Amino acid sequence: MAAELPTVRWGIIATGLISSWFVKDLMVERTDKRANHIIKAVGSSSQQKGTEFVQKHLSAASPIPVIYGSYEEVYNDPNVDVVYIGTPHAFHKQNCLDAIKHGKHVLCEKAFTINSAEAREVFEAAKEKGVFVMEAMWTRFFPLTRKLLTLLHSEKVIGDVRRVFCDFAMDQKIASLGPESRLKNPALGAGSLLDIGIYSLTWALLCLDTGLGEQAEKPKIAAMQTLIDEIDTTSSALLLYPGRQGVVTCSTLVKGRSPFCRIEGSEGSIEIEGFTSCPQAFTIHKGDNDTKKYEFEKPGMGFFWEADAVALDITAGKTQDNIMPWSETVRVLEIMDEIRRQGGAKFPQDAA
Ligand SMILES: NC(=O)c1ccc[n+]([C@@H]2O[C@H](COP(=O)([O-])OP(=O)(O)OC[C@H]3O[C@@H](n4cnc5c(N)ncnc54)[C@H](OP(=O)(O)O)[C@@H]3O)[C@@H](O)[C@H]2O)c1
Q1: What gap in Å lies between CA 306 and CA 251, rounded to an integer?
Q2: CATH of the domain at 46
Q3: 197 CA distance to ligand 1 centroid (A)?
Q4: 195 close to ligand 1 (CB < 6 Angstrom)
Q5: What does the DSSP 8-state code read for residue 104?
């Protein structure tokens, strides 16, 4: 069966936290897998970091990936089909452009870039080169998310959606971090909105509107941010659509609670539990004695679902994914640009 599935060969760029989660998930044995994933190469700022990463997270990989002390060598490796980018957001644009220049397909972590102008530049380059590129907004690919959206929009299980509240809050102990941290340094893209608020915004957009990218309605936006040492530590935005509203919040100063999202409709409501990035269950409430809970098993964290989508798209010769097309990444970044314009968070890249 595995032999009949498409196979893609990955090159991993950077050896931080998210890269470790991603590679571990690619190795997970699971029954629903739709592609074979081979990690061919790992590129790091240093050979030693790369070696430690492979020893710690990929000792069970077969074959053991090649370790490079630079990203460039991964882009040049003819055995790599697709590059996974797990650097801080401030480097995503350049990492993507470099990988694309070498004809590699790309899966790049969220936030895809610092602002929408940077994202357009990357997609323009991908279009010219004819390669596949996708923002790694993994949450959209969870079976839970797909089921919820079908119930919400196709089956209209709670009637017409009127309001969505969504929050992502975690105490990141920002004050105790040094300037080398991507959570502290504006030059690395620090701030609550791009790091975690992007998930609250994603849920609100998905639940309030069936369209993606250019097909989506444009909400009016009212936003505020709390800045400490020039980085946004709390961001709140109201999205106004005709007849419906979204309340989108995030904070890096306090720990949030589950359920993290409530969707209210003309005939009931839905609460989503787990982490805003990594949902676990949702419950439909249609009356005091009419509730139904949907729970979803996961053999790992859930990064394999986006990885499968990438593999299938590349095998099919596509340059964009239907769930996370380029114009959707640009739309989310445009809304975050506007939230930051109103709220005050700025990055050096905005001036470029
Ligand atoms: N999808 C999710 O749930 C999720 C979760 C966490 C983070 N993320 C995203 O993933 C990206 C990385 O986050 P992370 O938490 O993994 O960060 P991290 O732990 O700080 O790792 C970032 C890695 O990027 C490389 N890097 C290159 N230049 C760097 C520089 N000047 N400063 C720091 N690191 C540099 C380093 O790897 P080398 O030295 O090996 O090159 C470093 O280990 C961010 O865009 C973030 O939003 C996504």
Answers
A1: 26
A2: 3.40.50.720
A3: 17
A4: yes
A5: -
**Domain limits for position 278:** 140-302+332-351
The pLDDT value recorded for residue 275 is 97
Do 297 and 149 fall into the same domain? yes
pLDDT score of 138 more than 80:
yes
Q: Judge whether 326 lies within some domain.
A: no
Q: How far apart are the C-alpha atoms of 278 and 144, rounded to whole Å?
A: 10
- Rounded to whole angstroms, the Cα distance separating 297 from 233 reads 33
Pocket mutation for ligand 1, best pick of 17, 183, 192, 277 (most atoms within 8 Å of C-beta): 17
259 CA distance to ligand 1 centroid (A)?
27
* Domain total in the chain: 2
Please tell me if the CB atom of residue 213 comes closer than 6 angstroms to any atom of ligand 1. no
Counting beta carbons within 10 angstroms of the beta carbon of residue 56, is it exposed (0 to 12), middle (13 to 18) or buried (19 or more)? exposed
pLDDT tens per residue across span 3-40: 699 999 999 999 999 999 999 999 999 999 999 999 99
pLDDT at position 252, please? 98
Read off the tokens for 33.
């897998």
Residue identifier of the C-alpha nearest atom 18 of ligand 1 = 16
Tokens 């697709």 sit on residue: 82
Distance CA 11, CA 95 (A): 12
pLDDT above 90: percentage of residues in the chain:
95
Q: Are residues 278 and 197 in the same domain?
A: yes
d(CA 221, CA 211): 18
Mean pLDDT (the chain, rounded):
96
| DSSP summary character for residue 57 | H
User: What's the pLDDT tens digit per position in 159-209?
Assistant: 999 999 999 999 999 989 998 999 999 999 999 999 999 999 999 999 999
Output b/e per residue, 5-37; b: 16+ Cβ within 10 A.
eeebbbbbbbbeebbbbbbbbbeeeeeebebbb
The predicted pLDDT at position 352 comes to 63
